[in-house]
Amino acid sequence: MKLLMRITDAFFLFLVYHSFLSGQSLGHQVAFHVHNKCPFPIWPATAANTGHPVIADGGFYLPSAETQRVYAPWDWKGRFWARTGCNFTSNRQPACETGDCDGRLACDGLIGTPPVTLVQISVQADQSKPNFYDVSLVDGYNLPISVTTKQTSSKCTIGGCSKDLKKSCPEELRVLNKHGDTVACKSACLAFNLDSFCCSNEYGSPEKCKPSVYSKMFKDACPYYYSYAFDSPAPLVNCASKEYVITFCPSAWGGDHTSI
What we know:
Keywords: Disulfide bond, Secreted, Signal. The chain contains 5 helices and 12 strands. It is α+β, with helices and mostly antiparallel strands.
């Protein structure tokens, strides 16, 4: 009996120690409930800012209507996005139609290829202070996303889009798959690389860089997102919570999809 107790105690200590090493202590983490409401599978991905750890291996598979919980340490800063139309069973490059990270399932810190809709998050070290987050179309769009705290609050919610930008995307901004379907919509900056669209160099200030016909189109479809670098008022949300919900395709329509 004593030997059994010692083995049980040792196993319990191992679990505690392993939990500590792997960062699974909820008291020291923020939880992100990543939910896929799209009518097709997606491959959510994460990339940490410099100096912050990779979370969830940088990417994973998420079937339609399922949720995966992802943990990040306090003071974590980084981004989430979704890859679509992926096929990791062949040697084809890229492996995904949108958001690809060098053909890998686990991006392991790599940033996805734009255009993608980006969730940008800054978790504060002080748990009593609000965390900051936004959704950005500065590089373009591939899926609508909503973000809110687990206990839903209107002031903590970034809503989805009222229109599917892939359907209204101008021809010069479209990203097509091999079937000729529009799978993403580039931003004007990504498409044309002009200072006036990218808010760079002599246009690197809010006074000089103004909304364009393209950013206004993005804003009309997705009013809660950053449509260009100096979008005003800044659609940045700050709310203190230990749990957040990131939903891909939060509205009922979800968008079209064709696998590669």
